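## Example record

The block below lists the input lines for one assembly entry, exactly as stored, with component labels intact.
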Amino acid sequence: MSLLNHPSTSISSSSSAFLGRDHRRLKTRPHNVLLPAKRSWICKCVATPPAEVTAYKTKVSRNANMAKLEAGYLFPEIARRRAAHMLKYPDAQVISLGIGDTTEPIPDVITSAMSKRSDALSTIEGYSGYGAEQGEKLLRATIASTYYANLGIEEGDIFVSDGAKSDISRLQVLFGSEVTMAVQDPSYPAYVDSSVIMGQTGQYQKDVGYGNIEYMKCTPENGFFPDLSTVPRTDVIFFCSPNNPTGSAATRDQLTQLVQFAKDNGSIIVYDSAYAMYMSDDNPKSIFQIPGAKEVAIETSSFSKYAGFTGVRLGWTVVPKELQFSDGFPVAKDFNRIVCTCFNGASNIAQAGGLACLSPEGIKAMHDVIGFYKENTEIIVKTFNSLGFNVYGGKNAPYVWVHFPGQSSWDVFAEILENTHVVTTPGSGFGPGGEGFVRVSAFGHRANVLEACRRFKELYK
Amino acid sequence: MSLLNHPSTSISSSSSAFLGRDHRRLKTRPHNVLLPAKRSWICKCVATPPAEVTAYKTKVSRNANMAKLEAGYLFPEIARRRAAHMLKYPDAQVISLGIGDTTEPIPDVITSAMSKRSDALSTIEGYSGYGAEQGEKLLRATIASTYYANLGIEEGDIFVSDGAKSDISRLQVLFGSEVTMAVQDPSYPAYVDSSVIMGQTGQYQKDVGYGNIEYMKCTPENGFFPDLSTVPRTDVIFFCSPNNPTGSAATRDQLTQLVQFAKDNGSIIVYDSAYAMYMSDDNPKSIFQIPGAKEVAIETSSFSKYAGFTGVRLGWTVVPKELQFSDGFPVAKDFNRIVCTCFNGASNIAQAGGLACLSPEGIKAMHDVIGFYKENTEIIVKTFNSLGFNVYGGKNAPYVWVHFPGQSSWDVFAEILENTHVVTTPGSGFGPGGEGFVRVSAFGHRANVLEACRRFKELYK
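Predicted structure tokens for the full assembly:
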């Protein structure tokens, strides 16, 4: 039986008229969920209070910014849908190419450093308590010399953390509620969601996004680099390259434009380079390769996708000493205060792992793992190309951005899940500009990637 | 030569007149440091911008809340002073009874679980990537059954984190800038500092504290429990028991009063129980032992002081499903959203350690380490008692709160450091109500504690 003829396919495709109606109703119910509740298992995230809740209410008002947030954070929402799908099809072999979670074991040279550090913690000589909130000196210095050699970035500019996502939120706390911000559209949802939480935005409007955020459209037409001549000034510009979700990487010329744009406007760029080691093209791997960037940019990055540290948790943020607020106060000094007050340093065991990552053997091992995922990417790109889709990304990032013109991303997501048991990520989850796309992640065991591609071919042949 | 006659002692004691003048000047220089810069090595934390800073400034305004913060966060400030002291006296054997950092090795049963988990991460079967942001299900369930058995707290109410300090700041982000808050005075500085950062407070005023915060005085006179009849209503009440820094623990009767007070006012208590396992008296170890507390309280705790995890980083926060904002929205749902958006879960290796902590052997091992520190506490208490000081705390917490009536805490801190090379913590660093006290931490190797006490006896005999 062709997967296309699976009964539920017709449910998916015939539901678009219903969706249209439901979308109109949503406008009058702003606190409702982002997505139409087509099936009972969808959208548990913003449910009504559970039945067992007591009658007593405090007199503390709910933070109005929290109420602005649409639906659940994207990836837990996908995890919930995946779980619901598995309940519905308990025997299905579900494959996740969705949330961008690494699957390959961490190289020995790295895990053995972590287990050694763990063991040492039970000895008097090897025990250590609180470390510096900013990270261990040697790790900070090694990150600086490995990723920012000859760029004028020094140990003191590096803040080691439990990951880029946490750092993004700490940066938002640093900036406060009065700043304005711009994001690439589509983009990693933590930028926008943390901005909403901090009160930087207005209300959400369907197909438009949150008020007071500049969505810089990144489309196939502009090569996924925004037309900066049409972007109004904002205080902060979030920019991710190689990009999640589109997989595209900005060229040196484009990044030079971006830095000049920030400089002209007095803006601060928060540059997310978490995928820099996936770059095949000869583009800059750090914003600080662009002259003058240290005066206008912060860079955040992570070991998550380099060493499979998504569960181990280790990242870093570079705040150059040259970066200043309008009154001349160094941004790094305020970020240091945030880190000291709101954080207590990354796990010392994870930091030992980070140091091992940056040894010669560790760097080679990371490149091997990255190379493996890049082969996965090629397989996925070829599959969708062969099916006649327009496919973007993939070359410089572990994400493939597949175009389904005129279709709802969540419909396509549901169609793929229902028919192939493969979890992807709906493009519209990354912002209004992602509508009509689906992100396919290359993180997966080879056999699963091959099997997923076989099923894609079955569905879309 | 008696330590009392050391030349610099007279500098310390004669400096009070100078301090008085300097304090008055501070009022006209609100962005200056909290402490008089008696010596050049003091107060590097709010220095003028470094010389190498470039001329370019962005047009992004500095977050006005950050500018409100006085001086550096307390503990990094103490670390800086300790470092400066070591520069001045390179041959001194400096002993730290200051920042409350654990010193004893982590029991084998716990570290071996962490090294096993590290090693497993390099195998296909043992690898795991992103975990649930809220923590691993088994760990959440085990925390619930270990610390909250029969209290109606379930796995889903537990949010595992990288430590209580991070959670406090996430809770502040949850509450937002519009809430009012109360703290015990003195209290752990992260409560107030994170409140300032989130914009909940007014400006700082010397000897008074920040505007718009209710400082609930906890003194020997009221048995370190605030007179609630004089405390105005606030949205949030931070309460720590056993208390850091005073070492006192609230009784069941006092906590019942506190819960009733919150209920009458519709307030939310954030209850910090990070030292509960140090309790000798028969007081409640959790706020949820008080009937009705689940409707008005959040509890945050940590493995830091139980298992020596200050560097490993693992804690948890309990947000009961019964706790509601004034509109009936469950607080846990918003906290879940914060955790999912601003955090990516605690390190999986640390979580393996947490689970081992809660095994029967792990619990016994934690009690052994805690027992060791409690012996240290007794030694310190006896020492100061024998010297005629009024001493508080110690019995239910690893902190001894020593009274130096009429003296400046920072002066006493400096006097002790200068004359004994022992680092303590000045009481006023915990709020205006801590003035005239010094906190002595019982975290230390036995030999160091004994030697520090010998030096105290020399100085104060």
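The radius of gyration of chain A is 22 Å. The domain at 108-360 of chain A is CATH 3.40.640.10 (Aspartate Aminotransferase; domain 2).
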